Structure formats: structure tokens, C-alpha cells
Amino acid sequence: MSANRIMRISEEVRKEVSDIIQNDLKDPRISGMISVTKATVTNDMRYAKIYVSILGETESKKRILEGLKNASGYIRKEIGQRINLRYTPELIFEIDDSIEYGIKISNILKQISPKKDEKTDDRSDDNNK
Questions:
Q1: Matching CATH number, 3-96, of 3.30.300.20, 3.20.20.210, 3.30.450.20, 3.40.50.920
Q2: HSE of 58, CA atoms in CB hemisphere, 13 A
Q3: Pick from 71, 87, 94, 125: CA 20 to 30 A from residue 100's CA?
Q4: pLDDT in tens, the chain (129 residues)
Q5: Buried b (16+ CB within 10 A) or exposed e, 96-117
Q6: C-beta of residue 25 within 8 angstroms of C-beta of residue 77
Q7: CA geometry: angle at 112 spanning 108 and 113, to 5°?
Q8: 35: exposed, middle or buried (C-beta count within 10 Å: 0-12, 13-18, 19+)?
């Protein structure tokens, strides 16, 4: 199957899963900041790995991931109705920590950058003397 077609289907699955999670799920375990960052559909279109980024504590991440796994049948049924495919892929949810990792790196860079500014201020003071 064409790589372009698989990429288009993966992106469409990502959009639909994101919409279903945000608007249709009523499970109280699934709340907070949940972002669907990526979806990859296998070449035979039997499985789709859904990568979700969840902001929060480790316990809440586990609770939300468990809720998503329990709701995977409903989400799969909704995808089957929204996207016209021969086979509706079975959904496998994975946690994606890339957003939290990016925030952590950003904070580290913010901590380092004032130190650089202090060094440049010291040099400018020496030049003014």
C-alpha cells in the first residue's frame, strides 16, 4: 500500500480520535489536558498506535490511559462510522512524553539564560571603567 495513503489515513485517524476524546467521551477518568500527538496505522490497516500526551501527575496519567484503553472499543466504532475504510484499525494507546520533555528543556534553558546575561553585563561594566 502507498506510503502517502498510509500517512493520510494516519493523520485522519489522529484528528478523529482527538475529536472523539475531546467531545464524545463521558468517562470521568478521562479529563484534563490530553493531546493526541501522533497516530501510526500499520500497512495492513489492522492496528493503529495512538500517541497521547497527558499533562499531570503519574497517577492521573495511568488513570487516563486506563480510561482510554477501556474506551477503545467505542472510539474504534466511532472511527468506523466517520472514516470509510475496509477495516477499522484496532487502537493501541501509548503515552507520549515529548511535550513534557520540551517544557523541561525550555525551563532548563530559561535557568541558564540569566547567567549568560549576567556575564555580558559584567563585561560591559569592565569596558565602561
A1: 3.30.300.20
A2: 0
A3: 71
A4: 688 999 999 999 999 999 999 999 988 888 888 899 999 999 999 999 999 998 888 888 899 999 999 999 999 999 999 999 889 999 999 998 888 888 889 999 998 886 655 555 555 555 555
A5: beeeeeeeeeeeeeeeeeeeee
A6: no
A7: 115
A8: middle
